[in-house]
Write a structure and sequence with these properties.
About 75% of the residues lie in helices and about 0% in strands. It is mainly α. Strands 1-2 form a two-stranded antiparallel sheet.
Length: about 300
């Protein structure tokens, strides 16, 4: 029996969480050997070129209006990824960073309200104080002085929330009528949108790297290990992950889809414990637990609907 569009989206998004989690490991290893923004430039240009080969016909079919719209989405994504890599570079705990970054999922309804006038569910406003309490606990171990890495992660979460909202609308937008009376579909093919997102991030990262980083891209020689981490980040952590995520978002509304993404920090924490030997203090566990609880509260209705759909 063929899977429904919702089931396909769920399976894709579950795969996205795994790819996202291993991408944290790839990126952490790479930035230990390479300037962070330069790494982002190489990673996303490679990913974008790979996706361009796959989506070149869809990209060629885009109108100038669709190109502009896709580039705007890509610029927001580039800003978020730039902040994220700064958090990864300056942060001291990978698992904690993942829980801070996933706050973007909680903030999606707020961004859609601010940008598109959509009504935010009551659960979002109930969840916000819980998330703030979690943030406070994570900062508590520094005497209520958040680390620079934590600040970068939180800024990235806000930008990712805006990106999720814009990206979902870009691949799900319905028919519209322009000033001439011509009806057109503004939805952008997932492959084309993802390729443009990747290339935009690569271009922005390259520009920022030239402006603020040392002209030396690498701290040492280009070793097979560094090449491997960069290629894994580009092909697995970027191209495969974001193509799968955009395709899934084209099949399912974000209110049901992104609920699955909340398991990403759990996988990151487990992988970080296995790969880097990371552990969490009681305060960190409580803070991350409150953030995860806030995500569950904010997505309560969607989670209930998702569980019911799996049982059907």
């Amino acid at each position: 029996m063929a899977l429904s569009r919702e089931r396909q989206a769920d399976l894709m998004l579950l795969g996205v969480t795994w790819l996202a989690a291993v991408s944290w490991i790839f990126s952490k290893e790479a930035v230990a050997l390479m300037a962070p923004l330069a790494f982002m430039a190489v990673r996303f240009v490679l990913a974008g070129l790979c996706l361009t080969l796959l989506a070149r016909s869809d990209m060629a079919a885009l109108s100038p209006r669709e190109w502009r719209r896709a580039i705007v989405v890509g610029l927001v994504f580039a800003a978020g990824m730039s902040c994220w890599i700064m958090g990864l570079t300056h942060g001291t705990h990978l698992g904690e960073g993942a829980f801070l970054t996933i706050l973007g999922v909680l903030l999606v309804p707020i961004m859609t309200r601010l940008c598109f006038g959509e009504r935010s569910p009551v659960s979002t406003w109930v969840a916000l104080p819980v998330a703030v309490a979690g943030l406070a606990l994570l900062a508590l171990r520094n005497g209520f002085r958040p680390e620079i890495g934590q600040i970068w992660y939180v800024v990235a979460a806000n930008l990712f929330a805006l990106f999720y909202a814009l990206n979902t609308r870009a691949v799900n937008h319905g028919p519209v009528c322009d000033d001439t009376g011509e009806v057109s579909r503004l939805a952008i093919a997932p492959g084309a949108l993802t390729a443009i997102n990747m290339l935009t991030v690569g271009a922005v990262s390259a520009l920022l790297s030239l402006l603020i980083e040392d002209v030396r891209l690498f701290d040492g020689m280009v070793t097979p290990a560094l090449a491997g981490w960069v290629l894994a980040s580009a092909l697995i952590g970027s191209a495969a992950r974001f193509l799968l995520q955009t395709q899934a978002q084209s099949l399912s509304p974000h209110s049901h889809g992104v609920v699955i993404l909340i398991v990403e920090p759990v996988w990151v924490a487990l992988l970080a414990a296995f790969w880097f030997g990371e552990t969490m203090t009681a305060t960190q566990l409580a803070g991350c637990g409150l953030i995860f609880l806030a995500l569950l509260i904010s997505r309560g209705a969607a989670l209930k609907s998702w569980v019911a759909r799996q049982a059907a």
